[in-house]
Structure formats: C-alpha cells, structure tokens
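Batch job 17 of 40 flagged for manual review because the log was empty.
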Amino acid sequence: MNDDNIRYSREDLNEFDQIIQEKLTSARKELSFIKETLNRSNESGTDTTASSAKVLEDGAETAEKESMNQLASRQLKFIQQLENAQIRIKNGTYGVCIGTGKLIPKDRLRAVPHTQHSIEAKMARRD
C-alpha cells in the first residue's frame, strides 16, 4: 500500500489544524469564563446572613459550584485532547484510526477534530 493512502496531505492537515485552533480558542475562552464565574461565586460567599433560606441557598450554591467545576474539568480535558491532536498533526499521525490503522473520514474529523477513532472502531469498542 502506498504511504499516501494512510496519511492526509499537508493541505488537509493545515485545514484540520485551523479547525482545531479555532476550537482551542473558543474552548479556552469558555474555560476562562467558567473560572471567572467560580471566582465570583467564591468571593460573594462571605455573606453571613442567618436564615433558613440561607441554608437552601448554600446548598444550591454548592451544587452550582460542583456543576461549574465539572464543566471546567470537562473543558480542560477537551483542550488537552485538542492540543494532543495538534501534536499528532506535527508528528504525522493525525487522522489515522488507532483501532483500524485506516484514515478517519474527513467529515468525521471536521466534526470531531480531536478523535482518534473511526466510527467503525468506535462502534467496535462499544460491543
């Protein structure tokens, strides 16, 4: 088999790199917003008003902080996956399914640029 059949061209890789860079920029802005929101809720949590409603508010606030922390964690993971995809672009392994060794279709990479699995391999993992 010709090596060209198992690697994307430099032009294709540049397209994917641009998609990834746009997603990284957006993901980093979102993470920054989540962190700012968490910091604001931490700063406003110093009010010591005594009431039964305060206990409910504290519980809701705690749940919201946990939810925001989970969002931040997922966003960090997404950013790391995108950065890893950029590394794969640089080292020439981007777009090759780690399950089948075949090229992942361009449409899938455009939709999920950090993926390392073709749909075929992803479905096989679920069984």
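Reviewer: the log was empty due to a logging misconfiguration, but the result itself is present. The radius of gyration is 21 Å. Unflagging and moving on to job 18.
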